[in-house]
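= Protein in question =
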Amino acid sequence: MTEIWGWTASETVAAIAARKVSAREVAQSALARLDAVNPRLNAVVQTMPEQALAAADAVDAALARGEAPGLLAGVPVTIKVNVDQAGFATTNGLRAQASHRATEDNPVVANLKKAGAVIIGRTNTPAFSVRWFCSNLIHGATYNPLGKHITPGGSSGGAGSATAAGIGAIGHGTDIGGSVRYPAYVCGIHGLRPTLGRIPVWNPSLPERDIGPQLMSVSGPLARSVADVRLGLHAMSLPDHRDPWYVPAPHEGPELPRRAALCVAPEGMKVDPAIEKALREAAARLKEAGWVVEEVDALPPCASPPACRACSGWSCCTGA
């Protein structure tokens, strides 16, 4: 049987709601896992065992009173060190912010707490959260659970490493140009960069960002299953009036035809048998889920594009 720390968020919520396990027991398992593996990963750079156990006890008490447990009731999660969490430093990997302690939660943190999530630690990021690796002069380097020879990615490398290693079921990350998606990819898990305004964010302790970062940076979940990514998105995206970009858009859109194209060897390219097998298995799963999968022989050109008539370079405009 999988250890408690290895359960998905969905499994954890169901087990706690059914009283098969207490939120405190889940938190204790998550904290023990953190203690066991984080020393070699340095994914979590600020821990909070006392606060985590207190939050878990609050979930158990709410359940005992017959109250609604919340979307993530008792689920251990981590928070990236570039967003405000009351009582902890919003370092963003910078020495200048090493003692910059927040007094108020960022909306995304507040939403996770409202959902009943239990925050067990804060995860590392490169300085300013602008690199595709995860190292800085204040917290040091973070390593991939798959091996130190593999980057954990960035900027949410701490979140990716922690979640992949079983330190929390869901990790909070931020993303402008891949900072959730790349760590998820290299750590072998799942990550989502939602649309601007989907998840409310704002750091009360810091000056407002310039318009560029406001329009590009978003928060999003990392998890070991797609179902948990969806659950994390729903929990993180509760309304918060402090973010003027927030949009109360529905999570489910209208029913549309589910169609996909399968191209195993575009333009006759040689394809490794293992790749072809994986593609066909993916197509079979889609068919089982009700999708119409049509096999095609070609895709938009994958070879070197033609020269652009306008600039004599590569295809870069409608004049190509």
In short: The chain has a mean pLDDT of 93. The CA atoms of residues 199 and 237 lie 4 Å apart.
